[in-house]
Amino acid sequence: MTTMNLSTSASGSALTVRDPWALVPSLGNLDAYISAVNRIPMLTAEQETSLARRLRASGDLQAAGQLVLSHLRLVVSISRQYLGYGLPHGDLIQEGNVGLMKAVKRFDPEQGVRLVSYAMHWIKAEIHEYILKNWRMVKVATTKAQRKLFFNLRSMKQNMKSDAVDADTHRGTLTQSEVDNVASMLNVKREDVLEMETRLSGGDVALEPQTDDGEESYAPIAYLADSHHEPTEVIEAQHRDWLASDGIAMALDVLDDRSRRIVEERWLKVNDDSSGGMTLHELASEYGVSAERIRQIEVAAMKKMRKALATAA
Fold it and tell me: Which of 20, 137, 160, 255 might form a disulfide with 65, Cβ 3.0–4.6 angstroms?
């Protein structure tokens, strides 16, 4: 086991740690880590100032390590405030530790501020960034106002619900007056409040079907895909347009006059009353043949037209 030597000079101005990182277990569960960092001694103001001056003067990594170690419990404490976002506590602590190290690197002891006060901003900033990147697949907050709402709106809604006269009947969504109140308290636009409430109430939806039972699932990819510029769809659309114009005209040209008129009357003519062209019996009466004969001519004409269109395609 690595030996440690924690000692303070007679003046009480320095803390010496032979191997400071041995205080924190490298392996083990999260509870063991938290227990270990809570046992690390706190620094006095004089010790903190002395170590910070050594770090700024000569880049003393030993001094930086002791400053970080003595504030690991602060990271644990702050990270607990963000457990409601469903992300692993260990990851929150890890990101907070990154913020702590950034704070130690930039800390100026001559400003008259304790490191604990200075580091809180950096720790929270790193945790906030981690939550925003990992809480959802799609980033829910990008602007300053959206970030402010993301980290405050849920707790404010809970407080409003608990303060309501009839909490059981309080709606899940904010009322107009509550929206105005939130916007005023956070100094944001009421439109931003409404938009963030909508974002927080929604959830991630997989674009692709997630079922493995072989049955088709109606996933968003089925109705979000834009097929207008898909090559096959474009070619088919062009072919349909050609059939509806030049193709039909070309196919009609291969017919004799009687066959052409029968096809036009049966399939292509639309009267003002939308009743369509002539019936089989009307055409039969005009040409002095039976309705069955008109039907046979029509069938033969359609076959010729399809053959002509297939050859042209």
Answer: 20
